[in-house]
Amino acid sequence: MPPRLPRFARAVPFDILMRIRPPRSHGGRVALALTVVYLAWGSSYLAVHVALESFPPLLLSGLRNVIAGIGLFFLATRRTFVWPTAAEIRNAGIVGTMLICFSSGMLAFGMRSVGTGTAAVMVATVPLFATIISAIAGRPIAKGEWVAVGLGLLGIFILNHGDTSNSSTSGTIVILGAALFWAVGAHLASQLALPADLFLSTALQIGLGGAISTLIALAGGERVGSLGFGSVFAFVYLMFVATMAAYVAYGFLIRHTSPIVASSCMYVNPIVAVALGAVTLGERVTGATYVSTGVILASVALSFWFDRRRAA
């Protein structure tokens, strides 16, 4: 029998969430998952920008993920629940550390000096890092795929050259590091044994990763500043939409679609982020932004095309 939940976990919001039923067809579920990931993670850059007004970067990443992980764990216990093995918990902690502690934490840190649209474009290099990791792991890489990697790096150079902020160089390096750790975490998630239940697997990854991130942030002296309505609203949005909903949707895509489909969010997110940053924050969209965006998205699309040819 699943463990009995505390009273607050049996509150109405959880009951409402459990009564929500996804589309019955496979295509409908894939479309719903893609929509959630595109919109949630595309808008998360704006939400992080607003939340950073009150939350330090590593603590922001840690708190929202550890709370979301606890919430997803309680949802998992309402389903057909099977306790994970020690190896599965360890593996989930490793993957969560890469995705949450390192990747999300570094992204939030870098966005203190990099605009939302610029950050989203740089994160679009995740598939390119994944190509490099695959080569290191022993998969043969075609020459065209290396051309795609070169295009991506050229796009980053153009983007950074057109950024006039004082800390753009350091912010760019940090965000590129976040993209690299995301690619490493995604690779490990496909190689390590994780719980079969999607909710439980996601809960352990983001919960353990968030807990490690929170502990490091507190040990480093990070503390929450004065809370404003905007930053609190952004934090809640990040916790429920960009973490709980989006990570479950992304996990579904990883399990039930091709890597090309699942990774498509990495080049759709910049379009959403640039549009929201320009409309709501008045971020300047320069010619370098347009050129670098086109070059980076072309490089990602080229790498996906070669991956599709290899699969065929």
TrEMBL record:
Membrane topology: Multi-pass membrane protein
UniProt key word Transcription: no
UniProt keyword list: Membrane, Transmembrane, Transmembrane helix
Pfam families the record matches: EamA
Transmembrane parts of this sequence: 30-52, 58-77, 89-111, 117-137, 144-162, 168-186, 198-220, 232-253, 260-281, 287-306
Record carries keyword Protease: no
Domain of life of the native organism: Bacteria
Primary site of residence: membrane
Compartments (UniProt record): Membrane
GO cellular component term, pick one: membrane
SUPFAM superfamilies assigned to the protein according to its UniProt record, in alphabetical order: Multidrug resistance efflux transporter EmrE (SSF103481)
Matches recorded under InterPro entries: AA-Vitamin_Transporters (IPR050638), EamA_dom (IPR000620), EmrE-like (IPR037185)
EamA domain location: 32-160, 170-304
PANTHER family linked to this entry: EAMA DOMAIN-CONTAINING PROTEIN, INNER MEMBRANE TRANSPORTER
Similarity comment: Belongs to the EamA transporter family.
Protein name according to UniProt: EamA family transporter
Organism: Trinickia dinghuensis
